[in-house]
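Reviewers asked in the last cycle whether our approach scales beyond single polypeptides. To address this, we selected a multi-component target totalling 513 residues and predicted its structure end to end. The input consisted of the following lines:
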Amino acid sequence: MTFNRREHNGHSKNALLALGAAAAVVASGQAFALSAKVSGQIDRALMYGNNGDQSKVFNVDNSNSSTRFRFTAEGDVTDTVKAGTVFETEYQSNPSNAVSFDNLTAGSSPTLHERKMEAYFKGLFGKVSIGQGDGAANGNAEVDLSGTSVVSYVHADSVGGGLTFQNNGTDSGISIGDVYNNNDFESRYDRLRYDTPAFGPAVLSASYGDKDNSPVTELAARIGSDVPGGKYMIGLGYSNKDTGSNNPSPASPQADKGNVVTTGGSASYLSNTGLNGTVTYTTKSDDTSSPDAKFWDVKIGYKFGKNAVAIDYGRSKDRFGDGYKADMYRIGYVYKPVGWAELFAAAKVHKLDGPNQSYDDIKVVTTGTRIKF
Amino acid sequence: MTRTLALSLALATVLSGCGIMNQHYAGGESSNDIPEGPGMLSGQDGAFVIYSDEKDGQQTPSEAGERTNDTADDHSERSKDAASGDASPAPADTAEYREFRDYQAFLRWKRTAKGTEAYREFQDWRKWRNYKRWQEQHAQ
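The resulting structure, written as structure tokens, was:
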């Protein structure tokens, strides 16, 4: 315990030093331009699910990109340094990843759910952020230039994640969300994050913070550029969640080594012709319980005019347990009649094979709209 | 794992060195974030401006005239101008200043009203005005 406290104190000291440096920069300046803005979106859909035994139609909030709003503010504190804040929260009635065949509605009423509450300083030195927000690697396993991510998100368990597989009419209790996940690092948490200035097309990032009562460290690189004939994006990341360090026991030190380590990334290329391709690959190792999980997904798409269509195939292996293999194939379509509205539809099939056991496929068809207000 | 991480970082370094193309993306947004672009009610900016000190008219008319296509990326340049003391404050009660404030309001409307009925009517009026000028020139 003493060791951990010392470790935390060390990090706190580093955080204070970073904030002190930022404050020193700010103190030398004078406030100039200031602005504060509000924006948000509504993202709703009808979702049909069928597991071979049961089928239902759900009226859901699309968890691929949930209904949310945000307040942002930014101002010049010197001629080269800006400071800003982001307050973003989601408000989902019937999240598409939470409904199930037993529950047409998820929860009794929607609640505000935190996404980002952060303050930042940015300038020639890069960007320093503190508060609840994206970890350095968040989103790096979700890079996608196909224009279909609102309905064909690589995090496929966001739609129908609560639907359960069955075999011979018996509900297995195993849901899509239990077996299928793209391992996009540690998402959002309370952290201190640093992003370098752009080195050519690349930005390197690091973050340290706390999530689920465990310290989290993340490193990441994002690279994107126009190239002859098109453009590309690449995201790479590493995260380490130290789940054992808060409860060390001298009697069984081995049991305390609870690192959950995720490594991988994604890359996407969009040709000027509209053809595009995206690949994602991640691995997740957990010292304490689950076996190492692997995930990959390949997507090919085509954008033309106000339309975008894509097909993808993904596999999530050993996430639920050794020998469990979950596959997903899908087609998604997005029509964007104006800049602020999207109409979308997708159909997908989730397959699951376990040790000496196979389950009936789950089919999910979704259609809806996202409107930015 | 260490090898994968080392390979990833090496790839990032190599690609960073190839930064000869125009930078397209170096941000931190996830693909499921609120998308960039216009909003149904908020217009081209995609966000309601609840406060902006530009509304207080801290720019001079000449500055605003040069920056009718202002973007967020121009903020640092504007700040440099202000910091260097080149931007002298405008007198608050002159007719010229009031006209400038009206002009600023017009620019804000022009940025946010695209696609509305009023904007289409404005475009029609501009065509009609050009037609009238053409008519007058040819009448002479």
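The two ends of chain A are 49 Å apart (CA to CA). We regard this as preliminary and will revisit it once experimental data from Aim 1 are available.
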